[in-house]
Specification:
328 residues, alpha/beta, Rossmann fold, Alpha-Beta Plaits, 2 domains, six-stranded mixed β-sheet, 11 helices, 14 strands, elongated
Length: 328
């Protein structure tokens, strides 16, 4: 649904994005991730046709953004970081106004406004002035206007900015429910948001693509050595001695109890790091069995998205691009 190839935007001598290429498939939720100033907002503006590229191209649903801007805009629903809301209008009248601007046929306008109100659970505030509803509801109204023309592609720029924790959870749940029916591009610098909502991530830094994959595969690529978490029924000193004596073990670190579990003196937990290419699972099992120490849990440990992000974006300090300081 979205194809980006060699996309580049320069602001005089400043680089917004440089030679950016990626794709987003039908029904996919793609995370566009990067530090503040990395070029995320510039990328979104180029894809939506808000401004032209210096070079390269972008296509949405097969239409070139520069050659067929109207066709592209008909297929995109866009929620900017600060939704363009008219606060002196009611929620319903604002959505009816947006439906008219988006050229929704008059015969279908009311039904599609009702559909957007229902999808975002805005019925209780439909008759209220936008200035009198909460920030969370205003964000829902912004998302409703993006959905009004039943777009094939939704582009959401920092959709949870400024919301409280409960509102953030609600908006994330709504976004996740839109996958499958829409191709969603979610731009964010909030890593838990991307990890929880997106199936694949594009990471950019200083305007350049540094990685494109699922969080799981990025973790596997960046962590060359195997890392395991093992919980064992046995005293800490016994278990540690057994683990440290294993061939191929580089590091043994004590771990705390499982999340939500109370400390148990009869249960010890450790993370193990193996030499590159060395599979610890079988020798670990037999060593603990010989020592009479039952394994309660054994699982691989992956790099978190935070660790992946830091590895890919902190080799050099990110410099702000010339995007007017709007949190690109």
């Amino acid at each position: 649904m979205i194809e980006v190839s060699g996309l580049t935007k320069h602001y005089g001598t400043k680089v917004g994005v440089e030679d950016l290429s990626f794709t987003a498939g039908r029904g996919e939720i793609l995370g566009l991730l990067g530090p503040n100033g990395a070029g995320k907002t510039t990328t979104i503006r180029l894809i939506t046709g808000y401004m032209p590229p210096t070079r390269g191209w972008a296509r949405v649903a097969g239409f070139d953004v520069e050659d067929h801007p109207a066709e592209v805009k008909r297929r995109i629903g866009y929620l900017p970081e600060n939704p363009p809301l008219y606060r002196d209008m009611t929620v319903r009248s604002y959505l009816e106004f947006v439906a008219q601007i988006k050229e929704v046929p008059p015969a279908r306008r009311r039904a599609q406004v009702d559909e957007a109100l229902g999808a975002l659970d805005l019925g209780p505030v439909a008759g209220r002035l936008i200035q009198n509803i909460s920030r969370g509801y205003r964000q829902r109204v912004g998302l409703a206007q993006a959905l009004l023309n039943r777009p094939e592609v939704l582009i959401l720029d920092e959709p949870t900015a400024g919301l409280d924790p409960k509102q953030i959870i609600e908006i994330r749940r709504l976004i996740k429910s839109l996958g499958g029916r829409h191709t969603v591009v979610l731009s964010s610098h909030i890593l838990p948001e991307v990890a929880q909502v997106c199936g694949r991530v594009v990471i950019i830094n200083r305007g350049r693509l540094v990685a494109e994959d699922t969080p799981e595969r990025l973790s596997q690529r960046l962590r060359r050595s195997q890392r395991l978490l093992v919980r064992v029924k046995g005293r800490e000193d016994q278990v540690r001695a057994c683990l440290e004596g294993l061939e191929g073990v580089l590091l043994v670190e004590e771990e705390g109890p499982a999340p939500g579990a109370a400390p148990d003196p009869e249960v010890s937990a450790f993370s193990l790091e193996a030499q590159p290419g060395f599979d610890l699972r079988e020798p670990l099992f037999f060593a603990l069995a010989r020592a009479g120490l039952p394994i309660l849990e054994l699982r691989p440990v992956q790099l978190s998205l935070e660790e992946v992000f830091l590895q890919l974006t902190t080799e050099e300090p990110a410099e702000a691009t010339a995007e007017g300081g709007e949190g690109a």
